[in-house]
Amino acid sequence: MIILHFKKGLLPIIVTSFSLLFISACGTNTSSAQSTNEQNKNKGEEQMSEQEIAEQYAEKMKPEIKQALRNDDVNSFIESINFEDDIEINPMGYIIVRGYVNNHPEKYDFSAHLRLNSNEIDVLGTSPKLSEKFIDKEKEQRLLKEAEEEEKQVQ
Asked: How far, in Å, CA of 75 to CA of 108, rounded?
């Protein structure tokens, strides 16, 4: 809460001045926005929407997403990679590309979060079942065995 203390008689003048500034600023922004919209309409097809730009960038990054998934696939589980048609732009500005592996969208899905023109994948999330397929079982067993042996040596 902000409490303002004013000398007697100045409050109405300040409030009125502030109101006039606010109203004139809103009016200016509205007319400015209208002229910008008119300019965009005049440009017609030249201007791409934010969604179209995101879709175009996502299409460009799909080979990178496929490669990242294949790099994580130490067990050669992936036979096919499919992408969903809808590209989402979240409130933080990330472009989200969703897809699935081996024709099982309900089981082996993934999502890639991209930043426009960064040419890299910021986050590549996979479903728990798909993540399980990426675990190197032999390496996991070897590491568990080594940890057990170290524990025995300590005792």
From this structure: 15
